[in-house]
Amino acid sequence: MKRQIVTFTLLLLCALPLAAQKKKEIYKDKNAPIETRIDNLLSLMTLEEKIMQMNQWTYGKNANPNNIGEKMKEVSPMIGSLLYRSTNPEYRNQIQKKAISESRLGIPIIFGFDAIHGYRTVFPIPLAQACSWNTDLVQQSCAITAKESWLSGLDWTFSPMLDVARDARWGRVSEGYGEDTYANSVFAVTAVKGYQGTNLSDKYTIAACLKHYIGYSLSEGGRDYHYSDISNQTLWETFMPPFEAGIKAGAATVMSGFNDISGVPASANYYTLTEVLKKKWGHDGFVISDWGSVRNLVEQSVAKDLKEATQKAFMAGVEMDMVDNTYMDYLPALVAEGKVPMATVDEAVRRILRVKMKLGLFENPYVDVVPEKKRYLLPEYLKTAELLAAESMVLLKNDNSVLPITTKYKSIAIIGPMVKDSVHIMGFWEGMGRPQDVETIYAGLQKEFKGKAQLNYAKGCDFDGDDRNGFTDAVSAANKSDAVIVFLGEKRNWSGENGSRSTIALPKIQEDLVAELKKTGKPVILMLSSGRPLELIRLNTMASAIVAIWQPGTAAGSAVAGILSGRSNPSGKLSITFPQTTGQIPIYYNMRESARPNSGHYQDIPRDALYWFGHGLSYTNYSYGSVKLSATKIKKTDKLIAEVEITNTGDRDGKETVMWFIKDPFASISRPMKELKHFEKKFIKAGEKAVYRFEIDPAQHLSFVDSNGERHLETGDFYVIVNDQQLHFELIE
Ligand code: BGC
Questions:
Q1: Which of the listed residues 532, 558, 584 is the one where a domain comes to its end?
Q2: Are residues 149 and 102 in the same domain?
Q3: Residue 65: its pLDDT value, please?
Q4: Which residues line ligand 1 (CB under 6 A)?
């Protein structure tokens, strides 16, 4: 018996390493189910290894290119993620190799970066992209960004930004899709599809990150990083839907915001991060903090020190700490003291490992290394950049059809600080875009008008300052020309992160330049480059035509020149309202009606915005037929079809976007004056017609959410609104 026990024990001892070995192999087995692989891996990991997965470090920041390879030695092979600020795929592969071969379990690193509107090929800023209303082009731009990024060593982008933005003083309006909740939801899905493709483990796809969850754009007074007072009704009605749509589309990750949501900061908010995101919506990826937003909980006065900040963020549902090392420094003690349960640590690490597995990083940890000329700025990428830039430009005004510049103009003055610029025109978050790759407006115009019109250039003035010495040359260029085109705008860091401004007007010197040029009596055409809507109340009266060109990116020159020459027919429509003055903010198309609709408006400016959401002219004319409804009374389970036929009555081909709004004039919770529910953009040849259609599904299009996020569908009167037509219908049980 004794001998048997000894033999059995010996057998067991020999077998154990084998079993452990077997067990160890499961997570490496690409054919095993992901959750089984993760169970196996978690069972093998030490606490330290788990905690390391939850940290992101930066690589390449301020690094001298001569020693960036040296810097690699400082990277721990156990680190979970790197914010990778190099374009070199070989360094990435070397760092990855270090993680795979030098860490005990060989867990790959996930490399992330802000490729927000392009990587090396820079597309227009997202606010502009939304003005194109062209989801195909936006999706293509995201797919190109993913490909350029992946080939530079990235697995992950911190995009799209889904903060519905209604205060243009906030510089980050440039990074999102404008003031409308539905538009942000549609572009959320578009961006996720573009970045992630159909399978995250495919080459050239990268994980998306929905940010900044949630309500960041409501920072008081548009001051970045400030407190945001958000009622639960607004949270659910305005801010949640784009994130929910992005999650449903399969977004792998989410970033928690800097802002304080009515006393509970977004990065310590159990309700939004766990109850809603994870439990209600079932998100199975992970949440990364914003840069330092865990440590900020101390500044926001909800944590007495970094340790408590760590506990609060982690327990609320932030799984990865961006750059601060708070998790690395404080989680071990918090676990030892029983303040953070081991099960919560395991769940957090599981989420991170799940995303890595879905990306296929365990099987294919390395990216392909191809020469830069095959990686960046390929002709088809530049073409997409030009098309998207052109379609995002909005013709705000065009008195007497002064545009396009046809043969009626033999010489044109081109004036302004934007003409030869190659930096600001890319906008904020230009990725790895380089000024030397930008086709300037000047270059674009030279190409477009060669042999057709004489171009007389003068800079006129700088973006700001008081130096008016250049005005004289500008006026003489105008005097010898048939028309004057002035290219004004904002510097890149006047919008974007930390780009808040107390006034959204352009600096006085730019307005003064226009006033001087106006005195020449020549038609003045304004081309405005900005990362936000501008206060145009003075400029508007001085200009015959105005085009919002936004910050169009690498292909700026051709896109702008095409709009001016008429090679491209403008088709952009505003994704955000232009107020009369800064003081009119907030003003957005879907406000709620006031108790006294005809009173209470500012006395010193017109009641309306200068240019409302949805505004945008074309060089052709579209005539809208009468909207037809398939019924005037429908049941909750029915569908209602609305159709409108549109004729291009002008002599140019064009693309027209139809926006379908719903108005619910009476409900148990007050409703906005109207809400966008559907849009469609179609190409219509000159003289031809197209039919646009909206299938109204009551549950989806006529319901509303309450302050708990519960949907309600109430019977009664409704209106469908297209352009200036408003048709009544009734919803019955
Ligand atoms: C920004 C994020 C960005 C992150 C990483 C933060 O300061 O708020 O939008 O993704 O930095 O660069």
A1: 584
A2: yes
A3: 58
A4: 114, 158, 211, 290-291, 497
